[in-house]
Amino acid sequence: MANSPSHNSDAPAWVQNDALKTWVAEVAALTKPAKVHWCDGSVDEKNRLTEDAVAAGVLIPLNPKKRPGSYLHRSNPNDVARVEQLTFICTPTRDEAGPTNNWMAPDEAYSKLRKHLDGGMKGRTMYVVPYVMGPLGSPFSKIGIEITDSVYVVLNMRIMTRMGRAALDMLGAAPDFNRGLHAVLDCNPERRWICHFPQDNTIWSVGSGYGGNALLGKKCLALRLGSYYAVRENWLAEHMLILGVESPEGQKTYVAAAFPSACGKTNFAMLIPPRRFAGWKVFTVGDDIAWMRVGSDGRLWAINPEAGYFGVAPGTSTKSNPSAMKTIERDTIFTNVALTPDKDVWWEGIDGEMPEGTLDWQGRPYVKGSAEKAAHPNSRFTAPMANNPVLSRHADDPEGVPISAIIFGGRRATTIPLVLQSFNWTHGVYLGATMGSETTAAAAGKTGVVRRDPMAMLPFCGYNMGNYFAHWLKMRGQIPLPPKIFMVNWFRKGADASFLWPGYGENMRVLKWIVDRALGHTGGQETLVGWVPREGDLDLSGMDISSEKFRAATAIDLDEWKSELAGQQEFFDKIGPTMPAALKLQREMLIAAIDAARAK
Ligand code: GTP
Ligand code: SPV
Ligand code: MN
């Protein structure tokens, strides 16, 4: 009976967890689906669900000769990115969520969403998706169950997480799994809310089927709730890629880097060193999220909680990111890219011209010369990390990898130089906390506006931002051998509005200096704002950049810094009473130092 809690008996024999069965029965009684499907994660199940999705028009099969096992999904055109203004932290008090988050009282949020969830899955299949964030068997890992009425979400979760029976085997009889409830409803922006209940380890998301709004393990669990647990349990949940650099001598160094959404994490994590760096290799551990804990050796150890990549398509080519192009050759779900007549994918920046007869991301014939893009600027690929030719051997390691350097980097046309090393941990936290970046298509709203995006966590910190800064400062005392902290900017522009630094693989030159500095192998020059490479420290040989451009990319202009520091005041004021004094002092000291230097 679809309308009664008798769904309890629908659970297959391999589902033994009573708390789970009870919860699923309660949700089914509320949402009243026609059918409940428990996901076991098998290949057979994937094939059946894919067939269903194709039959329903949710997935369009791509050319099996060109993209075996791959599909295109076109989302509702009103649902193409995260919606920050509809994302809420639902803590008992507003102060816990803090001034940078939208807040709703838990009771209010539950009752508001419950109204829409009541009968919200009528006539539809309700999927129960057990998943693990983190390697199976790792003490770092967390188990979630996402209930969803979207087969597209199920198939994405199967790529992005360790999904299926393995998660329930790991959970055993424990009742403390994350409870995620997701329903697309009629995909109406007027009925779209993404609500987090940290005290209840619960996420309710309605009205969107897209990315971080709907794949609840990713931004909702791994970052917003993750950060909330991390501050209580003395670890860090961060919007960071993790990569390993191997020198020709075989020395391996691991680095974690926080860049805001659509600011280069996937690309940096898969970097192919230029010819000049023969013998150097970069391996991907993760491309979006890092969970980091202090190890028994006193170092900071990181795992990637995800198992796949939900990567930005536009700009991806064999020139910019050959490893990503290999990764998406097969078994990939593409969302909102353009479709060529021979059923392959196309987007702005991919290799080659757009073929005649290409359909745009909404399925309309593309009119060449049109002001609109053929692929949506936030179009994405979902691909298993196992496809990545430069996947680190440690990507699935329950222990993770030891981090020697942390990098913060925004998208800034001015002010921020190519690379900067902080003087110490506190100064590094200040650099991260005051990071600015231009907004991108990864979130709904205007793009290209500079905003403060501390540690690339503005949309993902699940509690009061001032307390988050305090947590970062406090972590220094917990890490006997802390990583060194750096800041980079691949996006500085010249007077002609073009990028000064070629980026992508050439970022290896900067990464090498960072690794050398972190290991104490090379010098640097002290400036008022941090350490920078001395003339000649960055190996530029075999590279196409004029010395004027390089100088402009690395320049520290004290006038620009003066206005940067003025801009930080507004943000500090917004954080208010929880803003740590240590960070305010960093800013004041820098203002004083710049004033003194300019006074002559
Ligand atoms: P999310 O998945 O949204 O968190 O994004 P991300 O941080 O992983 O960004 P990604 O690597 O997908 O890059 C986003 C956009 O920036 C793409 O269009 C890239 O082509 C572009 N990009 C990445 N690295 C560089 C770089 O070094 N220089 C320049 N100019 N552009 C870059
Ligand atoms: C981001 O916006 O940072 C992403 C894409 O990685 S989403 O999963 O939609 O959050
Ligand atoms: Mn991201």
Walkthrough of the structure:
The protein is an alpha/beta fold and 600 residues long. It has 16 helices and 29 strands. Strands 1, 4, 5, 6, 7, 8, 9, 10 and 11 form a nine-stranded mixed β-sheet that branches. Strands 12, 13, 14, 15, 16, 17, 23, 24 and 27 form a nine-stranded mixed β-sheet that branches. α11 crosses α16 and α15 runs antiparallel to α16 (581-599). The longest helix has 19 residues, at 581-599. The protein is globular and about 75 Å long. Mean pLDDT is 96; it is low at 1-9. The chain binds guanosine-5'-triphosphate, sulfopyruvate and manganese (II) ion. Manganese (II) ion is lined by residues 239, 261, 288. Residues 239, 261, 288 line the site of manganese (II) ion.
Which terms would index this structure?
600 residues, alpha/beta, Phosphoenolpyruvate Carboxykinase, domain 3, 9-stranded mixed β-sheet, 29 strands, 20% strand, disordered N terminus, binds guanosine-5'-triphosphate, binds manganese (II) ion
Itemize the secondary structure elements and their pairings:
Layout: H1 18-31, E1 35-38, H2 43-55, E2 60-61, E3 71-73, E4 87-89, H3 94-97, E5 102-103, H4 106-117, E6 125-133, E7 142-148, H5 151-160, E8 162-163, H6 165-171, E9 178-183, E10 193-197, E11 202-206, H7 211-214, H8 217-233, E12 236-238, E13 241-246, E14 252-258, H9 265-269, E15 281-286, E16 290-294, E17 300-303, E18 308-312, H10 322-327, E19 333-335, E20 338-339, E21 345-346, E22 380-384, E23 401-409, E24 419-421, H11 425-433, E25 436-438, E26 450-452, H12 465-478, E27 484-488, H13 507-518, E28 525-526, E29 531-532, H14 547-554, H15 558-575, H16 581-599
Parallel strand pairs: 1-6, 3-19, 4-5, 4-10, 7-9, 9-11, 14-23, 23-27
Antiparallel strand pairs: 2-3, 6-7, 6-8, 10-11, 12-16, 13-14, 13-15, 16-17, 17-23, 18-22, 19-22, 20-21, 24-27, 25-26, 28-29
Sulfopyruvate binds at residues 82, 211-212, 218-219, 261, 288, 310, 442.
